[in-house]
């Protein structure tokens, strides 16, 4: 199988990560031109998850105020393609808004002493629940892949970030989930081993469901378990990337 484009050579990827309020009046042509000036091979752009930056049709995918009257992701991907820059779509399924929690509490993490796990105004979702999988994340990623010329995904903030005692996790682990190593160190070690394996199993269908549904075949997970083998840091002599147009199939 031929090497994927991201494994052919070292790359420079620029992640501008503007705040939502900065996107409301974004001059897309100027923004992309600034990104090109960094000599980046690709840019990471917020696309979906907690907020959609395009007119999504997926239930519970709340469209950002910054994209209420415009298709921001469409504008950026089109302009980036015109200027020879690849776009990696950043999605974040680790948290969701209160209305989603109210409708589907079974999608969210729990602790033994608390019904919910909060992150500011958001509720933390469970990696094994439907939200991060077939009920929400997969339709969102398919929608993005089938609509925009993106070159990959950056799946932000995956994993458990501790432990979860929701019914999905309790059933999958098969024994009471420990909250730390003190009470039963052996059970905690079994849990840590299971947790890593569970995340690996969870991410595989997330990747394949998207790549099989379109001609694109790349993903850009932030999980260390699925990163490409790490190489040395970028040498000072690296050549700037060539400005070849992005292609739908990568
Ligand atoms: Zn859980």
**How many domains is the backbone divided into?**
1
Mean pLDDT: 82
Order of helices and strands: EHHEHEEHEEHEHHE
Q: End-to-end distance, in Å? A: 13 Å
Shape descriptor: globular
In helices, the fraction of residues equals 25-40%
| Superfamily (CATH H level) name | Glycosidases
What is the fold-level CATH name, i.e. the topology?
TIM Barrel
Determine the number of helices (DSSP H or I, runs of at least 4 residues).
Answer: 7
User: What is the CATH architecture assignment?
Assistant: Alpha-Beta Barrel
Give the total of beta strands: 8
Classified by CATH, the class is Alpha Beta
Task: Reconstruct the topology from this structure.
Blueprint: E1 13-14, H1 20-23, H2 28-37, E2 42-49, H3 72-82, E3 86-92, E4 95-96, H4 98-103, E5 118-119, E6 122-124, H5 137-147, E7 152-156, H6 167-173, H7 185-213, E8 220-221
Parallel strand pairs: 1-2, 2-3, 3-7, 7-8
Antiparallel strand pairs: 4-6, 5-6
Could you explain how this protein is built, in words?
Helix 2 crosses helix 3 (72-82) and helix 5 runs parallel beside helix 7 (185-213). Helix 3 (72-82) links the parallel strand 2 and strand 3 (86-92). This protein has helices spanning 20-23, 28-37, 72-82, 98-103, 137-147, 167-173, 185-213; strands at residues 13-14, 42-49, 86-92, 95-96, 118-119, 122-124, 152-156, 220-221. The strands form two sheets. A five-stranded parallel β-sheet has the order 1-2-3-7-8. A three-stranded antiparallel β-sheet has the order 4-6-5. It is of the alpha/beta class and 250 residues long. It is built from seven helices and eight strands; from the N terminus they run E-H-H-E-H-E-E-H-E-E-H-E-H-H-E. It binds zinc ion (ZN). Zinc ion binds at residues 109, 126, 128, 164, 166, 168-169.
